[in-house]
Amino acid sequence: MAKRSVEVQVLDSDFSVLLRESVTYEFKMESRSKNRFRNFVMFCMFLALTGIIYFSYFCSDEACALTPQKPSWSEFNGKFPVQDNLGKPLSLHSNPYNSRSSNPGLSYDDVLNENFQFDMNAHDVMVFLHIQKTGGTSFGKHLVQDLDLQRPCSCQRKRKRCYCFRPNRNENWLFSRYSTGWKCGLHADWTELTSCVDAEFDKNEGDSVKRRYFYITLLREPISRYLSEFRHVQRGATWKHSRHWCGGREATKVELPLCYDQDSWTGVKLQEFMDCPYNLAHNRQTRMMSDLALVGCYNTTYMATPGERNRVMLASAKRNLAAMAFFSLTEFQKSSGVQCLGKSEGQEIVKCLTNVKSFILIGIVLQY
Ligand SMILES: *[C@@H]1O[C@H](CO)[C@@H](O)[C@H](O)[C@H]1NC(C)=O
Fold first, then answer.
1. Which of 93, 167, 329, 360 has an alpha carbon 20 to 30 Å from 52's alpha carbon atom?
2. Structure confidence at residue 44 as a pLDDT band (50, 70, 90)
3. Torsion angle in degrees (nearest 10) through CA of 179, 181, 184, 190
4. Which of 301, 305, 308 maximizes ligand 1 atoms within 8 Å of its Cβ, making it the mutation to test the pocket?
5. Distance between CA atoms of 216 and 126, rounded to whole angstroms?
6. Which residue puts its alpha carbon closest to atom 2 of ligand 1?
7. For the segment 125-163, what is each residue's pLDDT rounded down to a tens digit?
8. What does the alpha-carbon distance between residue 114 and residue 172 come to, in Å, rounded to a whole number?
9. Are 179 and 144 within 8 A, CB to CB?
10. Residue 82 has pLDDT above 60, yes or no
11. What pLDDT does 130 receive?
């Protein structure tokens, strides 16, 4: 049933309302009359197809821009006045105590219950939080290359970047390495992104725009991820241009000493890698998902004990993860439907990523 609703919902924003009703209807009708229901669905499908054909052939883009009258942006704002602070400047987070009470944004539940969609034509922005060695590079490429969009991202062979613009104007809807680049720092974490993304968009689009941010990420089984990072560092990777921005400044050399003397840690042995107390690989996923302002950023003496610091970080990471519009587990992408991203997988696979709503449904499939 969930799968079916994915199929149906991605057809088109306007028709999806109608069709989603039909799915709800199905639950009620099934016991009474399957045939009558089938006819009803066929009728809906027919209506939808006719509509799509009408829109695509007889209607210019401008005359028929599908700006929904659905409860979208303005109504959303009225309902959730406090939830806009995700992606806002750090001033909102700089006081750890304020930060503790700040609302991390839209959760799965909000998104499902409020029945809203990612609105390409409005001011919705998808932000990909890319943690090292979680398979984010290929996922990020899928995001710019393989989504079935009204206006696909335009990518150039030579450059690594793509333009992922909204259908009706040249504004980015995707914040990621292959669209906007590392505008908030190399592999920016939750703390960096939420204090920077909105300001970056303000630079290009003006600060009068209120945007909704949909954060997405991938997580990986931590030991595999750790070993993968170890091998990557052994081969010479450093990510030394990461900013580790928090509380309005970058972490200092004292707060975050390097584990190696030379330019890189090439050839490091596993034991040595594990023994370095400043090695960010140790709790990378937790640290990158958490609101570091809560623990005094990279100042490790801010919290009474390391145990306390770790507990707060983990709790914050869990809360932020729950507040994301979508996350996937690297190991389960193949068996859970994220393969619908790949063109190579064939057209019979549901084109399921035209809106974040379907992202969420895949997320749910993932959980079972
Ligand atoms: C780190 O935190 C401690 C405890 O709050 C504080 O005394 C110290 O000044 C902080 N260090 C820096 C560099 O801010």
1. 360
2. low
3. 60
4. 301
5. 7
6. 302
7. 999 999 999 989 988 888 888 777 888 899 987 878 899
8. 25
9. yes
10. no
11. 96
**Active centre residues (catalytic):** 187
> Residue 296 Cα, ligand 1 centroid: separation in angstroms?
8
pLDDT computed for residue 101 by the predictor: 34
Most confident of 73-87, 139-153, 187-201, 214-228: 187-201
Report domain extents, the chain: 2-64, 73-361
Centre of ligand 1 from the C-alpha of residue 254, in Å: 12
CB 147 within 8 A of CB 179: no
Residue nearest to atom 4 of ligand 1 (CA): 302
Q: How far apart are CA 137 and CA 153, in angstroms?
A: 16
What tokens appear for 124 in the block? 């919705």
What kind and span of H or E run contains 127?
A: strand 124-129
Give start and end residues of each alpha helix (H) in the chain: 2-9, 13-29, 34-58, 73-79, 96-101, 108-114, 136-145, 190-205, 222-234, 270-275, 284-289, 306-322, 333-336, 356-367
Model confidence pLDDT, tens digit, residues 238-273: 999 999 999 999 999 999 999 999 899 999 999 999
| Residue 288 in tokens | 């990158």
Q: Which amino acid is at 364?
A: I
Closest Cα to atom 5 of ligand 1: 302
User: What residue's CA is closest to ligand 1, atom 6?
Assistant: 302
